[in-house]
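Form 7-S
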Amino acid sequence: MSRRETNLFFCLGSSRMLYCFIENMPSAIVQAIKQICEEKNISYEAVLATIEAALAAAYRKDFGDKNQNIKIEFDAESGATRAFDIKVAVEDELAEAYAKEMEERQKMREAGIELPPPAAGNQPSATGGERKAEGGEQAEPEEPRYHPKLNISLSEAKKIKPDATVGETLIQELPIPAAFGRMAAQTAKQVIMQKLREAEREVVFSDFKSKEHQVITAVVQRREGRVILIDLGKATGVMLPEDQIEMERYNPGARIKVYVKSVALTTKGPEILLSRVSPEIVKKLFESEIPEIGNGVVEIKGLAREAGARSKIAVASTDESVDPIGSCIGQRGARIQTIISELGGEKIDVISWSEDAAQFIGNALSPAKVKNVKLDEGGHAALVAVAPDQLSLAIGRSGQNVRLATELTGWKINVMEETAADAGQAGGKPAETVETVESPEAAEAEKSEEASTEEKTEDADKSSETEEIAEIEEKEAVGEEK
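Output:
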């Protein structure tokens, strides 16, 4: 609790004569309200509404009735406070039906009979209204029911205002007590604390909701298990394990760029989920660091990323005089190096986008040099031929380069050496298949040629065997002579 809040609680929560104290020190209240507004970035009207709710709770605690709908009007400038009981006039029959129902429930309670749930109309609703059916469809309007806190019978309303009609709102001013008790002051203090926290949460939520799906700079706060807590100034963001780069270290106090995935309002305040692995963080960094992308001269046509390792981004220019790749790289790589450093040294390939699918696939496989690209439109696949010394570069470590190229282009890419590509063998289906149909005469001629070739081969084998036997016998004879 800040010192400004303590001053406001003291002004509103003293067990002495609360009204007299406020009337004697209006300037202190106004000063405390303005200081709270500056510290918590809350509007003056929101703090004033909080004070009025606290005073209404304090009045109801000591002097109010459970069937009074108390509203407080507080003028911080003059210190004047007024209390009102606000009710809506309904027909006498509704009030009589409610009284009869309450009498029956009292008899059942005395007899020990289990009480049925109260009628829907006896829940807090002034004059009834339309109820939502299941599935969000509009149901028939429910009949107006009587609620003693919000309604007053027409006969009783005419005692206050003779010309009162059904549905008219009656505002009856209540006397201001001379003093509040200690419990009433404590109640007012608790209400102010709760309302200020709720107002602060709403302000923080609306502030970060406008930054959703954007990249912001934050400071690493601490680690809790596998979760990283990020200091965002007015709030604390959460970076889950799946949103963290695997080999990246998050040291407390380090400033990093994070992508705001989602902002949701929970009972404990705004829940802000951050990410370092989203491809959008690369796109947003290019938009902020490259002026040509920010003003729309250069467009980002596609993006593929494996966080912490490599990214591929396809760019195109709407102005023929502007080089899209040169604009992204910058002089001596100054622009791209800024983005790489923000991503912890992640490699980035900037390629030129093309409407020609074959050309685009060839560019996507950079830094490898592509010889030829054959497209299979039906299977949405591409057969890419590269030189033998470029094969490992085109595939990349563990297939990373071709995997990113596939994600970037949307085509299934098969990479092979140039000779294998010409033969139509890629470990998969060739780009083109040609079937040959032969005549019966040609088939018979081919068979006779094969038979004669086999006979010649057998004769050659027999002659070679005979020569080998002769050589062995000659060697044995020489050995015997020696």
